[in-house]
Specification:
Elements lengths: L2 H48 L4 H25 L3 H21 L10
């Protein structure tokens, strides 16, 4: 094997690793944006239903809190070891918030819009 072949092999391996890294970062960005928004939206819908203050104060507190929740979700997505683990955790949190909304009475079966 000549020096040129070794260098070409290294180049293709590097390009493949760079492509995988870029795809991983792109997946994390999309997951952070979409998943973070979903978690923040679900939490901001749940909090006014469970906070023991007036409706206006509860909605204001929920909206303000949603910014911190979105930031925490974004940080979690980029801190997670893998994209799959980040997606799994965000999915579980979204499912728990959805169940909590249902238990709080926000979701009514058979109700039409």
């Amino acid at each position: 094997m000549s020096a040129g072949q070794v260098s070409a092999d290294r180049g293709s391996a590097h390009a493949s690793a760079t492509r995988a890294y870029r795809l991983s970062v792109a997946a994390r960005v999309l997951l952070a944006a979409g998943g973070g928004y979903a978690i923040a939206a679900l939490a901001s819908a749940l909090l006014p239903l469970i906070l023991p203050v007036t409706r206006a104060e509860a909605v204001s507190a929920a909206m303000i809190t949603s910014f911190a929740i979105m930031a925490a979700a974004v940080i979690w997505v980029f801190a997670a070891r893998t994209v799959g683990r980040a997606a799994l955790v965000l999915g579980l949190v979204a499912a728990l918030l959805t169940v909590a909304l249902w238990l709080a009475g926000a979701v009514q079966a058979g109700a039409s819009a």
